[in-house]
């Protein structure tokens, strides 16, 4: 851990201390216990799926796979970390990293599943439903406090932005390895393995299941398989894959044209890179993210027209839902300790900010402010299910050209951007 990152983390923890103290006093609480959560074994089995620690726990403690552990915060006192560390000869016992942040906590290594004693007016946050003995005297997951804590998380500290930048650097190495594997004619599974090796991580540690889609699989938004054998023809590759660093997530997508793609597809990939770059310029304090999402649709209309896929006007492409059939997801979302981070659909005062009716998949509807980190991920896909209703209309779509592109599946280009007072800071190298 570099000295600079440690200093940033120290500032991050000091600010958390101050902000939590103020929030607890405001909510008349003497203490707050944050439960890490734990994985449950599969039914009738002793094996459990991969686990991710609760975000508010990771906001303090930079360990993404801690289970059965507690953090207790009291205003103006040192945070108490009750770390589950069973005496166990089946597994390597839990050990704390030799990093300076450890000194910021009073650490209690616990050989059993403990519930820390809570005094005075107390609240517990986390996945307490699975705890048989959650203290009945404490408030459980109080909504107004959680809203405030989520609001605290949507604006990142310098430490968090440094972590997100490093997660991006590591992920990009994986993307380069994936591209090289594609050039070498690998199939989806081998591209995935190349990505994991290049980004130096095991599959259970990824922040979300990597999407590695060849050909028409690139048009399945959250394609979830890895074909073992390479396909006979190679039209395209879409890789949406991330990396964690100290809990913080990268979420990056690249699309590549293959040797069997029509030239048009390569041109569309280039146009989508240009669109991503243009939209990144809009990631500034004061930007209404819904308006930026709408700008994406207008520019998608331009791209469809410029490449002769649509022979009407931009206004018609947007108004008649043509661009939405080509891109059914939102422009982006908040990014942090969760890939789809908290508080994207809320106003700063905690009231709901739902997406507009015509854009139900938009995960961020807020006005951007300095310190937020968002993804910008315009897409253009050839999804038979969404295009089918348009075929029944007389809309001026160039179906012959579109059918020619169908085997390529689609395109998504995704970067991770921090909002600063000086404008966008693209964390993706
Ligand atoms: N990887 C999921 C997303 O881009 O939102
Ligand atoms: Mn993604
Ligand atoms: Mn994303």
From TrEMBL:
Catalytic activity: Xaa-L-Pro dipeptide + H2O = an L-alpha-amino acid + L-proline
Residues in Xaa-Pro dipeptidase N-terminal domain copies: 9-150
Any one Gene Ontology BP term: proteolysis
Signal peptide (UniProt feature, chain positions): none
Cofactor note: Binds 2 manganese ions per subunit.
Entry cofactors: Mn(2+)
Stored PROSITE patterns: PROLINE_PEPTIDASE
Enzyme nomenclature, EC number: 3.4.13.9
Location of the Peptidase M24 domain: 163-421
Source domain of life: Bacteria
InterPro entries reported in the protein's UniProt record: Creatin/AminoP/Spt16_N, Creatinase/aminopeptidase-like, PepQ_N, Pept_M24, Peptidase_M24B_aminopep-P_CS, X-Pro_dipept-like, X_Pro_dipept
Binding-site list for Mn(2+) 1: 251, 333, 377, 414
Keyword Protease listed: yes
Residues annotated to bind Mn(2+) 2: 240, 251, 414
UniProt cross-references to Gene3D superfamilies, sorted A to Z: Creatinase/methionine aminopeptidase superfamily, Creatinase/prolidase N-terminal domain
HAMAP family: X_Pro_dipeptid
Record family assignment: Belongs to the peptidase M24B family. Bacterial-type prolidase subfamily.
PANTHER family, sorted: XAA-PRO AMINOPEPTIDASE 3 (PTHR43226), XAA-PRO DIPEPTIDASE (PTHR43226:SF8)
Protein name, as recorded: Xaa-Pro dipeptidase
Organism listed in the record: Vreelandella subterranea
């Amino acid at each position: 851990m570099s000295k600079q990152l440690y200093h940033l983390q120290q500032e991050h923890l000091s600010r958390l201390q101050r902000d939590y103290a103020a929030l607890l006093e405001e909510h008349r609480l003497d203490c707050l216990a944050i439960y890490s959560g734990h994985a449950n074994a599969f039914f009738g089995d002793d094996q459990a799926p991969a686990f991710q620690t609760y975000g508010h726990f990771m906001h303090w403690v930079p360990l993404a796979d801690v289970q059965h552990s507690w953090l207790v915060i009291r205003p103006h006192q040192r945070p108490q970390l009750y770390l589950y560390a069973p005496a166990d000869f089946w597994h390597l016992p839990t050990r704390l990293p030799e990093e300076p942040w450890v000194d910021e906590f009073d650490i209690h290594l616990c050989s059993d599943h403990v519930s820390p004693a809570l005094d005075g007016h107390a609240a517990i946050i986390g996945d307490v439903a699975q705890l048989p003995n959650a203290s009945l005297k404490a408030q459980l997951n109080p909504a107004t406090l959680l809203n405030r804590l989520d609001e605290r998380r949507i604006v990142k500290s310098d430490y968090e932005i440094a972590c997100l930048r490093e997660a991006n650097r590591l992920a990009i190495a994986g993307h380069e390895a994936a591209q090289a594997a594609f050039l070498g004619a690998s199939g989806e599974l081998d591209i995935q393995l190349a990505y994991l090796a290049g980004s130096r991580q095991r599959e259970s540690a990824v922040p979300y299941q990597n999407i590695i889609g060849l050909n028409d699989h690139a048009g399945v938004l959250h394609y979830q398989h890895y074909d073992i054998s390479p396909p006979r023809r190679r039209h395209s590759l879409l890789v949406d894959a991330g990396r964690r660093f100290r809990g913080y997530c990268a979420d990056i997508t690249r699309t590549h044209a293959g040797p069997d793609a029509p030239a048009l597809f390569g041109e569309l990939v280039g146009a989508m890179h240009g669109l991503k770059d243009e939209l990144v310029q809009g990631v500034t304090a004061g930007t209404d993210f819904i308006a930026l999402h709408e700008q994406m649709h207008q520019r998608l209309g331009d791209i469809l027209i410029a490449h002769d896929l649509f022979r009407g006007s931009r206004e018609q492409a947007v108004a008649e839902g043509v661009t939405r059939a080509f891109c059914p997801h939102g422009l982006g979302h908040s990014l942090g300790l969760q890939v789809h981070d908290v508080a994207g659909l809320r106003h700063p005062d905690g009231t709901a900010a739902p997406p507009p009716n015509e854009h139900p998949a938009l995960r961020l509807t807020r006005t951007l402010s300095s310190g937020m980190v968002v993804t910008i991920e315009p897409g253009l896909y050839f999804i038979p299910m969404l295009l089918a209703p348009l075929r029944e209309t007389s809309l001026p779509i160039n179906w012959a050209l579109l059918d020619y592109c169908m085997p390529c599946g689609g395109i998504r280009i995704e970067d991770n951007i921090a909002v600063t007072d000086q404008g966008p800071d693209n964390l993706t190298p």
